[in-house]
Structure formats: structure tokens, C-alpha cells
Amino acid sequence: MPKTEGTQTGETVEELKLAAVAALDSADSSEELEAWRVDFMGRKGRLTGLLRGLGSLDIDERKIVGAAANRLRGELETLFEERVNLSKSSQATVGSIDITLPGRKPSLGGLHPSTQMIREITQAFNEMGFQTIEGPEVELEKYNFDMLNIPADHPARDQWDTIWVDDDAHGDVLLRTHTSPMQARTMETNDPPVRVIVPGKCYRYESTDATHEWHFNQVEGLAVDEGLTFADLKGTLYEFARRIFGPSMKVRFRCDFFPFVEPGVDMSIEWNGNWLEIMGAGMVHPKVLENAGYDSTKYTGFAFGMGPERISMLRNEITDIRHFFSNDLRFLSQF
């Protein structure tokens, strides 16, 4: 068999192949791959030089070397294409987690200030044995008013600017004006003893200003058992004030009216030398107990309600309640 090295380059087809494969395997970047292509496959490359040297061979050897060189060209083109594709795939994978770039601090969100305060309030009562529950924001008139000792002709209904919803299938439907409907719903489906805390959104059709919003959060509390007294109410709410505002916080209870409690009170805290009301409370009205199917001669209870936004305004020195719902990141990012 004639030798395949009688070209002007002095390099055989086998030697060229070994050198090309070894160089291709060591090429790690697109620049190195392009340099390889120019060196071995380019117009002035080593394979082209080998083919140009065929003229110095006799005709029989020229046929053998020429055929081998053409086969090598096809092999090298295939290997080069595969190597380029592999390099692109590797670059795409590495690029998604490019360790050569400086690290980027992830952008983390946070809880809304109202949510933070609601969680702090509910945790305080959870630690005193209350269970957190939630109720519907679209409510029936029965639970929002009637079962809470607020019949249709009761003047107390004027205190709530109700947003009504037309729904012939369920009668009078509304957006709840307070979370108190869950008092009736809870007692209707549970036997005493009951201790629940109810956070949720409420809605009232009223003008907005620095201290009023048409939608806001409220946290309702209810406890019913045999032998509960007003002293239990005062002790529970005093402990709550100490947990939220500090162990030295002073509280004051004054008579107030709410249709679903008797007697009713408001609770204030001493804040910067002034007394500020933070919630309404009282002993559950006997009619409310009876409407839910409880024996009012056997069971007593107390209830209370507060606005977490108002408590947060005190704690964080916020002067306008509308900030909570304006979606202004300059405000929200402070929490």
C-alpha cells in the first residue's frame, strides 16, 4: 500500500487527524474553536495545505491520499459542528448561574403593616387560650344585625353606613360592617365554652379622612362559659394592653353603648399623658345568647372589638389611616 505522507507539508492524513482531534478537545471557548477552524479547516489551514501537496505524489498514491484527506475533511466538519453545539449548550447553562458576575441581593417582600399588627394581636389572645377563626366578608343581614340585637327599626343601625348587595337568592345581603357577625355564627355552631378571636376586613359607606376609611380591618373577640364576669373581661383586656403596649401600660374603662353587649364599655390607654380609646367591649347581651340557642340563665360571656390600623397608628406614630391602603411603597417599605 502506498504511503500517505508524500505531500509537501510532510504530514500524513493520520497525523493530521490525531492533531486536529486533540486540539479540538482542548478548545474551551468560542474563540478557541474559531482558531481551530482556521488552523485546520481554513483556506490556508493544515488540511488545505495537505491537499495542495498532492501534486508532488505519483498518480496512484495521489488517489489514496486524496480520498483519505476528503474523508478526514468530512469527519472534522462533523466533529467541529458537534463541538460548537456542545459549547453553546454549556454556555447557556453556565450563563443562567454565571458565577463570574457579582452577587445580586434578592428583592424580598414583607408583610403589610396591618397584617403584622393583626398577627401580633391574635398571638396575644392565642396565648390566653383564644382560637383564631375567620368569617365571610359578604354577609347576611340576619347575622350582621338581627342576631346581634339590632332589628330593622333599631336606631343603632344608623351608626353603620351599610353597603348593600342585591342578591334575590339569599335575601338581604351586604358587605359586613363589623366582624361581630361571627359572634352569632360561632355560637350557632358551637357549644360552650367558646373563646375565639376573629380578624377580618369590614366595609362602610362613609367619607374618608385622616382617621376614617371606607374599608378597614377589625379584630373581634368572644368568650362564653359558665360564670364569666366583668372581672374576666377587664383582666383579659388589661393583659392584652400590657402585651401590646408594654407591662407598665395603664388602662381605663368607661361606660358605653353597643346593642349586642350589656353593660358596654370602651377601653382607653394612657398615651403621652392623654387617654385614648382603643376598643369597645362589654358583657354579651342575653338576647344575643338566646338568639344563638344558648341558655342566658346558665351562660355568660364577654366580647370586644378593635381596629388594628388604629393601634398601629399609635405604636408607629402614623397620622393618616389612608396610608395603609394607598399602596405607596415609601410607606410600606418602612415595615
UniProtKB/TrEMBL annotation:
Mg(2+) binds at E262. Keywords: Aminoacyl-tRNA synthetase, ATP-binding, Cytoplasm, Ligase, Magnesium, Metal-binding, Nucleotide-binding, Protein biosynthesis. Its EC number is 6.1.1.20. GO terms for molecular function: ATP binding; magnesium ion binding; phenylalanine-tRNA ligase activity; tRNA binding. It is found in: Cytoplasm. Its cofactor is Mg(2+). InterPro entries: aa-tRNA-synth_II, aa-tRNA-synth_II/BPL/LPL, Phe-tRNA-synth_IIc_asu, Phe-tRNA_ligase_II_N, Phe_tRNA_ligase_alpha1_bac, Phenylalanyl-tRNA_Synthase, tRNA-bd_arm. Binds 2 magnesium ions per tetramer. The keyword Aminoacyl-tRNA synthetase applies. It is an enzyme of class 6 (ligase). One of its GO terms (cellular component) is cytoplasm. It catalyses: tRNA(Phe) + L-phenylalanine + ATP = L-phenylalanyl-tRNA(Phe) + AMP + diphosphate + H(+). It comes from the Bacteria. Residues 115-314 form the Aminoacyl-transfer RNA synthetases class-II family profile domain. One of its GO terms (biological process) is phenylalanyl-tRNA aminoacylation. Tetramer of two alpha and two beta subunits. Belongs to the class-II aminoacyl-tRNA synthetase family. Phe-tRNA synthetase alpha subunit type 1 subfamily. This is Phenylalanine--tRNA ligase alpha subunit. It comes from Candidatus Lucifugimonas marina. The gene is pheS.
